[in-house]
Amino acid sequence: MQTVDAKGFKLPIIGLGTWDLRGRDCARLVEQAIRLGYRHIDTAQMYDNEREVGEGVHASGRRAEVTVTTKVQPTMLAPHDLERSVKASLAKLRLDVIDLLLIHWPNPRVPLAETLGAMAKMKREGITRQIGVSNFTVALLEEATKVSSEPLVCNQIECHPFLDQDKVIAACRQHGMAVVAYSPIARGGAKGDALLEKIGKAHGKTAPQVCLRWLVQQGIVVIPRTSKRERLEENIAIFDFALTDAEMTAIAGLARGERIVDWTWSPKWD
Ligand SMILES: NC(=O)c1ccc[n+]([C@@H]2O[C@H](COP(=O)([O-])OP(=O)(O)OC[C@H]3O[C@@H](n4cnc5c(N)ncnc54)[C@H](OP(=O)(O)O)[C@@H]3O)[C@@H](O)[C@H]2O)c1
């Protein structure tokens, strides 16, 4: 499996997103994904499925090969809450250690230095191997990298052809952090897009595969979600073709400011 190197940490370039997967279906999907070659699973406290994700990882029999990410919810960023909630996540996942722990969303009501101090403590105590952030803007990345005592290995952000994220991607690269693309097929919106369909036809691939390929070809990690086994296979079959420079540029031209994930608590986006 291809990986992206961030400060010595090797993150598998494709993972399974699990938001909205629940119960036995979630555990089964995670297990199937790992059997099909996925080596990276993305969950979060907010998804309320850490237990099932852990079950799927264990059932696969390949725990040692898999990178499991979970994220601390924004209401748990005060140090005491963070520690308590992360230990609860580890217990739900039934893992020896969390591989990658992220701040899910920034919360301006808790000083970032305090949160990052608690995140670093989780790493020092062996609760997590690595730490990082999600939904951080250029300004927040500046602040975070200044105050964190431990390296921040990634920023997980919304990223697909319909949204121009060039500024924040450049900032991640400047700080040596991997970019992890969430909603990488625009919640399914890649399917049916005329350009992606046309390029797909030329390569014998589907529009979602072209969309994912466009991201990984830029060295961006993708975590597409699906509830369907056949799509697990479709979404990972993106390493046997390459887009031309002209195709890469044409796809970049699809940007139209389409932000899918935006909440009242979102930071001021770049
Ligand atoms: N950090 C954050 O704040 C944040 C925010 C959002 C998401 N995430 C993470 O990123 C993951 C992915 O993002 P997402 O779930 O928002 O969106 P996504 O992966 O871009 O899209 C998922 C949707 O696309 C459909 N789909 C999947 N593969 C397909 C294919 N090959 N052809 C057509 N449709 C397909 C799925 O439906 P079916 O189930 O019917 O296949 C589902 O409705 C999440 O699961 C979560 O782990 C993180």
Would you summarize the structure shown here?
The protein has 270 residues and is α/β, with parallel strands linked by helices. Helix content is 40%, strand content 17%. It has one domain (3-188, 220-226): TIM Barrel (Alpha-Beta Barrel), CATH 3.20.20.
Account of the protein in words:
The chain is of the alpha/beta class and 270 residues long. 40% of the residues lie in helices and 17% in strands. The radius of gyration is 18 Å and the shape is globular. Strand 5, helix 3 and strand 6 (98-103) form a beta-alpha-beta unit. It has a single domain, classed as NADP-dependent oxidoreductase domain (TIM Barrel). The structure holds NADP nicotinamide-adenine-dinucleotide phosphate (NAP). NADP nicotinamide-adenine-dinucleotide phosphate (NAP) is lined by residues 17-19, 42, 104, 134-135, 156, 182-188, 191, 208, 223-228, 231, 234-235, 261.
Task: Show the helix and strand layout.
Elements: E1 3-6, E2 9-12, E3 16-17, H1 23-36, E4 40-42, H2 50-60, E5 67-72, H3 79-93, E6 98-103, H4 112-124, E7 128-134, H5 138-147, E8 152-158, H6 166-174, E9 178-182, H7 194-203, H8 207-216, E10 221-222, H9 229-236, H10 245-252
Helix pairs in contact: 1-2, 1-9, 2-3, 3-4, 7-8
The structure holds NADP nicotinamide-adenine-dinucleotide phosphate.
- CATH top-level class: Alpha Beta
Q: Radius of gyration, rounded?
A: 18 Å
Looking at the structure, the CATH topology is TIM Barrel
Fraction of residues in β-strands: 15-25%
Main pleated-sheet profile = 8 strands, parallel
- Structural class based on helices, strands and sheet pairing: alpha/beta
- Poorly predicted runs are none
What is the chains' assembly state? single chain
Which bin fits the share of residues in helices?
40-55%
Widest β-sheet, arrangement of strands? 3-4-5-6-7-8-9-10
Beta strand count = 10
The CATH homologous superfamily corresponds to NADP-dependent oxidoreductase domain
